[in-house]
Amino acid sequence: MRLNIRALSGSLFARMALILFLGLFAAQLVSLWLQWGERATVVSAARGQNFVDRVVEAVRVLESQEPSRRAAAMAALQYGALRVSMIGADQVSPDTGRRPMQGMINARLGAEHEVRVVGEAAGFGMPQRGNARRGVDVRLRDGQWVRLSFSGEADAPALSNELIARLAVMLAIVMIVVMVAVRQATRPLQQLARAADRFGRDLDAAPLAIEGPTETRRAAEAFNRMQERIKRLIDERARALASVSHDLRTPLTRLRLRTELVGDEKLRDQLASDLDAMAAMIDVTLDYLRGLQDSEAVRAIDINALLASMSEDALVLGRSVRVEGQALSPYTGRLSALRRALQNLIDNAIKYGAAVRVRIVDGAAELRISVEDQGPGIRPEELARVAEPYYRTDASRNSATGGTGLGLSIVRDVAFLHGGELLLDNRAEGGLCATLRLPRR
Predict the structure, then answer these.
(1) 39: how many CB neighbours lie within 10 A of its CB?
(2) Quick one: 306 and 283 in the same domain?
(3) CA distances from residue 434 to 326, 426, 430 in whole angstroms, order as listed
(4) How many folded domains does the chain comprise?
(5) Are strands 299-301 and 114-118 parallel, antiparallel or unpaired?
(6) How many C-beta atoms lie closer than 10 Å to residue 436's C-beta?
C-alpha cells in the first residue's frame, strides 16, 4: 500500500492530530519554561542563603581573632568562590537603604553590626545571569570593615536529561492516546465517504452499517434512507424507459410498413430516411436516459485488447485509428459502458478528422485514455458546455456531422460511473483532445 502524503496531509484526521500535537507540544514548552524559572528562583535563593551563612561564619571567625592574626584567618577563609578582604572606611559601599540580605545577616550576627550591600548583591536571592558581582561590606565590632563577595557564580544548572526524557515520554504517550481517539472520531466520516463512493459505482451496494455513537448512527440511517430513495427512483425510471421504448418502437414499425406502400420512390426514400433518423434519436436518447441504471457487473478489462479490436473494426470501415501506449494492467470496470464511451469518442473524432490517435497513459493512481482528432476543435467558451445533454456546437449542426448532442454526455456519465471524469481540451497543433480519466481502485 502506497502512502499518499498529499491526501494524508489534507485529511481531517491529520489536521486534528497536528493541531492537538502542536497544542501539547506548546504546553510542554510552557511547562519546561515554568519549571526552569522556578528552578532558577529556588537555586538562587539557596545560593543567597548559603552566602549569608558563609558571611556570618567568616565574620565570626575574624572577630574571634586578634587584629594581628586576621590576615592568616582571611587566607584560610579564601576558598571556593568566596573572597574576603579588609577595606578602609573610604572604600565602603554607600548605604542604599534596607535590603533583605542586610536583615538576614544582622539577624544572624546581631544588630550591632553595620552591613552594606555591594552593587549587584542587592538582588541576591533572585534569579541571576552571568558572572554578576555579589557581596557585602560588614563592620566588625572593633570598627574594621571587611568585604566578602562571591565572584564567577554560574547560572542555575540546566534541567536534567532524565527530566527531559520523562517529559518526552509523557508527550509521546499522550499523543498516541490522542491519535487513537482522533482516529475513532473520524472513522465514521471515512466509512460514510466510502459508502457514498460505492453507491455511486454500484446501485446495489450494501447499506451502511448502523453502529457507533448516536450522531454516527443517525447519519448512517439518513444515508441509508437516501440510498433507498435514489435506488427506488432509478428503478422506477428504468421501468418507465422500458415502457416508453416499447411504445415508441411499435408505431415506428407501423410507419415503416406503411412507407413501403408509398408509390413515389423519392418520397418513400425520404420517409424511410426520416424514420431511420427518428429511430436513431430515440435509441441514443434512451441510451442516455438509461445512464447509471446500467447493471452490468464489474470485471477486469484488458484495455489494450479492447482498443486493438476497436481499431481493427475502424480499419475494416476504412477509418484510421492509431493506438499509442498501453495499459500496464487490466482495469476493473464495466466493459459495455467503457466500450460505448470509447466508441462515442472515436466516432466524434472521425467526424471531424480523417485520422484519429488514441493515447494510453497508465499509472498506479489512474488510467488516462486520450482520443485526438485533426478537426477544427471547439471554441474555448463552448468547452465547458459541449458535454451537456442535447448541446451541439455550430459545427455539428450540418448534415454531414449532425447528431443528437448526447454522445459526449454519455461519455461523461460513463466516466462518472467509474469515479472518473471527461476532460476536453484543444490541441496546440489543431483538433480536439478528449481524455477519459479513470481512477484505479
Answers:
(1) 16
(2) no
(3) 17, 9, 13
(4) 3
(5) unpaired
(6) 22
What are the E-state strand segments in 126-183?
Answer: 134-139, 145-150
Confirm if 359 and 349 have CB atoms less than 8 A apart. Answer: no
pLDDT tens digits, 241-265: 667 766 777 788 888 888 888 888 8
User: Are residues 18 and 116 located together in one domain of the fold?
Assistant: yes
**What is the structure's pLDDT at 157?**
57
CB 413 within 8 A of CB 344: no
CA distances from 187 to 140, 196, 200, 205, 420 (A): 79, 14, 20, 20, 25
The mean per-residue pLDDT over the stretch 55-62 comes to: 84
| Maximum mean pLDDT: which of 83-87, 108-112, 129-133, 213-217 | 83-87
Residues 142/65, Cβ–Cβ less than 8 Å = no
DSSP type of residue 160: P
Task: State yes or no: pLDDT of 403 exceeds 60.
Answer: no
Query: What confidence score (pLDDT) does residue 97 get?
Result: 65
Tell me whether residue 352 is in a domain.
Answer: yes
| Cα separation values, 18 from 2, 8, 173, 334, 343, Å | 21, 11, 15, 40, 48
Length of the chain (residues):
441
The answer to whether residues 263 and 353 belong to one domain is: no
Domain span at residue 225 reads: 193-293
Is-contact 60 144, C-beta < 8 A? no
Q: Which cell numbers hold the place of 16?
A: 486534528
Q: Are residues 253 and 362 in the same domain?
A: no
Q: Which of 340, 346, 345, 308 is nearest to 414 (CA)?
A: 340
**Whole-number pLDDT of residue 15:** 74
Give the global pTM.
0.49
pLDDT at 129: 46
Single-letter code of the amino acid located at 167: L
